[in-house]
Amino acid sequence: MTVWKTSMRNFFAHKGRMALSAVAVLLSVAFVSGTLVFTDTMNTTFDKLFAATASDVTVSPKSAGGAGDDENPETGKPESLPASLVGKVAKAPGAESAEGAVTSMSVTVVNSANKDMGSSSGAPTIAGNWTQNDLKAMEITSGHAPRGPTDVMVDADTAEKHHLKIGDELRTIAVTGDFTAKVSGIASFKVTNPGATVVYFDTATAQRELLGKEGLFTGISVTAAAGVSDEQLKQNVATTLSDAGGTGTGGTYKLQTAKEAADSSREDVGSFLDVMKYAMLGFAGIALLVGIFLIVNTFSMLVAQRTREIGLMRAIGSSRKQVNRSVLLEALLLGIVGSIAGVAAGVGLAVGLMKLMGSMGMELSTSDLTVKVTTPVVGLVLGIVVTVVAAYVPARRAGKISPMAALRDAGTPADGKAGRIRAGIGLLLTGGGAAALLVATQADKASEGSMFLGLGVVLSLIGFVVIGPLLAGVVVRALSAVVLRMFGPVGRLAERNALRNPRRTGATGAALMIGLALVACLSVVGSSMVASATDELDKSVGADFIIQSGKGQPFVPQVEKALKKAPHIEHVTDYKGVVTKLTSPDGRTEDEELVAADPTYAQDLRRETVAGELSAAYGKNAMSVGDTYAKRHGVKVGDTIKVAFKNGGTAELKIAAITSDDGNVDKGAMYTSITTAAQYIPADRMPQNQMMFAKAEDGKAKEAYAALKASIADYPQYKVQNQTDFKQQLKDQIGQLLNIVYGLLALAIIVAVLGVVNTLALSVVERTREIGLMRAIGLSRRQLRRMIRLESVVIALFGALLGLGLGMGWGTAAQKLLALEGLKVLEIPWSTIITVFVASAFVGLFAALVPAFRAGRMNVLNAIATE
Description:
Elements: H1 2-13, H2 15-53, E1 57-61, E2 81-82, H3 84-90, E3 95-101, E4 103-104, E5 108-111, E6 125-129, E7 138-143, E8 151-155, H4 156-161, E9 169-174, E10 177-189, E11 197-201, H5 203-211, E12 216-217, E13 219-224, H6 230-241, E14 253-257, H7 258-305, H8 307-315, H9 320-359, H10 374-399, H11 403-407, H12 416-441, H13 446-466, H14 468-483, H15 488-500, H16 502-540, E15 545-549, H17 557-564, E16 569-583, E17 589-597, H18 601-604, E18 609-612, E19 622-626, H19 627-633, E20 640-645, E21 650-659, E22 670-673, H20 674-680, E23 691-696, H21 701-711, E24 718-722, H22 723-766, H23 768-776, H24 781-818, H25 830-847, H26 849-856, H27 860-865
Region (Disordered): 59-84
Pfam family, one: MacB_PCD
GO molecular function, one term: transmembrane transporter activity
């Protein structure tokens, strides 16, 4: 009980000093809890949506390959089934009703100003017919349902976002052509719509305009009669449809109960949510790791400042175990307070993330906010365990102080032997990490080298943390010679203070080092990716222009025709992806995608060949393969491969060329001509273009660029880019990804800054008497504050120098490994590295503001009298 009282007294006596450590715990736990609440809320939102929209039993077509639903195929038209099946399904025992549904996501909807009504968050644009089943999830809140070809109904979220009202005209772009309709009604979701744009037409219009003709549906929604289970109804429908081609695995149609359909949709979304969840938890883990350094430093300094108190406790009978337990109980209190506040802050963070996603187009309602029981439990356990573990070493060190040494105020024992052992272990780990990184750069396969890269990163990071005190003595002196000496005696005092306790300086710098090492590593990798891609584009791409969809949709025929009619164009190349099954001469069959292109593609992309001529691959019944495939199957030019085209026939194609896979553009691609593919794939099953390429007439690049843009100005979903545009887009995409990562790493850097603040604040308290004496012999307040700021700056620069150096080493090793995948150019982003290093000095200045201010306000006499 006495130990508990002592711990409580010490905790509240130093509550100001504990506050920053508590904030570090709070931030880390908040990020973990917020991530869990946010992803759980997204799961709840989608679960409600899928449950609301799924009918009791759904009948849908299977793709010809039997791989499952083909909801958004390469043809731009959904798979369909005959409308006559609706009547048959309605007669199945236990079926109350059945109705046909038309759904397509291969559409773009634009308003009268030619602005795309689709979501900017990546959610699809869904067009279909209005059915009774839709009333389960939606209700008409304005106007009326579509009644004819000139009517369209939109969802309320889209109408609000784009200021649509009854009577506004919308144009829908599909592979079957463009058609216009006026808004006749607005329907609101009864559950949260995560951001999809939804438009409804009458059934005949939806069939004709989205599927190409009437008499087809993409699915059938079946409602069960009272007392009939979904599973029983599914079996009855399967039996009824057996005369129409069979159902079940391998059959013509796919049947799903409401639960199966919801589970299938949830699985598709779940993979994306899992990636987001674990990525965010990873950054939260980095922040927790940084927080450990802060807590270790805090308790180490508090123990040092209470040396005499601990000696008195030992002298009156407290055992080592009790002193140890006293410190750990303080850590437990800190963990509890910080974790509880962190869990609460995590809920607020989740709400903030939901608002942020809303501004980006993904709507999430706070009414769906989901806080599972496990979330606060995970947050509390994580925060408390991390805090107690971090405080263990300082607590153990406190227990080792002998009563006599403590009463003499000798401080914590300085074990030279332990320091030498620590340095030896640190050097060993750092050397092992460097060796692993070197092995990674020499690997022949990326998969093999990645294991050594990961090992090298972990070992070198731990090594730098362990060896930090040794490095502090060397690096701080070097930095001081450049940064501090110009400030005269004050600068030398700041240097001495930073070197006074190398272990403390090393731990404080290591906290900042971790975040900046990751920043530097990712900057090197990102810059190298851009430089490598730019270099390869310059070498490989012969086309002047690349045309593609911003949302990955296939090209509609009207755009293809418009591009080919543009003036000042030498040629336009079609580029299609054809799904096939390839059977090589060794008898092995693999699923592969062939690139079916015009012969001019050989000019648009200069692929190096190791055998044969690429132009020959565009001849009749010919193809090319990559050298990786050729080696794997032992094929050579002149051999024949059996090609089974999806939705088509089977061909025997001769290998006319083997291309080098030593590059990143179209790596591993196999080519054939569109003419060859058209011999075996029916015209209505031929995939639409994935991309298109164009070459300008000599000296007409500027005119051709303008002409291509003008030709498809009515189709905002497609973008014409010259090589400069394409390179800039690539740079912007990688830059946006890195900015997101930097934003997440900012949490770790904030925690590291708190560590610097805490170290300085406690250091000022520790040196109270010394500060009083310096003031008494003539040091001004201004000089005192400058001394503390300079000490903070040099500690921050120490951490930055270690982090940036370590990160550049990681990034260089990673690039050498990625060179095996075609990213051959190493580029160090010196501007970013230098900016981060300089910014670290300002971080140090900022961290010193409060400690320096408090030091300057000390009363000289009281400070001298402090024991």
